[in-house]
Every structure is written in C-alpha cells, then in structure tokens.
Amino acid sequence: MYLMINGNPNLHFAAAYKASEVCCEMMDVLPETDLILELSNILEIQKSLMECILTNKHFGDENITSFVNYCDELKWQIRRLGEQI
C-alpha cells in the first residue's frame, strides 16, 4: 500500500505510515498512564489521517482543526510538565 505520486510510489510516506502503525501497536502493550494514553491517541489519529491520504479520502476540516488544536494544547502541557521536573 503506497501513495502514488505521478505514477511512482511515495516510499517516504509509506515508511512514515509503517512507523505510525508499529507505534500504535507498541502503545497497546505499554502500561496505561496518562502520557501513554495521550500519545496513543495522537498516534491513532495520525494513522487515521495517513489512511485518509492513502485512500484519497478527507479526514474533515473540522476534525483536522480539532486535532491540530489538541496537539498544540498537549505541547503546552508537556512544556509545563518539563519545567516542573
């Protein structure tokens, strides 16, 4: 399953998708913590976005905006957490 661009497979995207797939599976075997759950959620949404690209579907403008805002909020929380450590 490769994203085709001008009739050629996009191997960079395929590799990134595979990495996302593996990360999602790894998250399933890690102990549940707040950080693991948040990371797992981000990776699952990222994988869904990539699947939309591969299948030439649209994730939805509102969903994409919500995801970007969610990621920005988490980045802010992570910075605050890093300052406390």
Layout of SSEs?
Layout: E1 4-5, E2 8-9, H1 11-29, H2 34-54, H3 61-84
Antiparallel strand pairs: 1-2
Describe this structure in words.
The protein has 85 residues and is mostly helical. The protein has one domain. Helices cover 75% and strands 5% of the residues. It has helices spanning 11-29, 34-54, 61-84; strands spanning 4-5, 8-9. A two-stranded antiparallel sheet has the order 1-2. Strand 1 and strand 2 form a beta hairpin. The radius of gyration is 15 Å and the shape is globular. The model has no long low-confidence stretch (mean pLDDT 85).
Indicate the radius of gyration in whole angstroms: 15 Å
Give the uncertain stretches in residue-range form: none
User: With helices defined by DSSP (H or I, 4 residues minimum), what is the helix count?
Assistant: 3
Q: Strand sequence of the main sheet, in spatial order? A: 1-2
Category from helices, strands and their pairing: mainly alpha
Share in β-strands: under 5%
Average pLDDT figure: 85
Task: Provide key terms for this protein.
single chain, 85 residues, mainly alpha, two-stranded antiparallel sheet
Quick take:
With 85 residues, the protein is mainly alpha-helical.
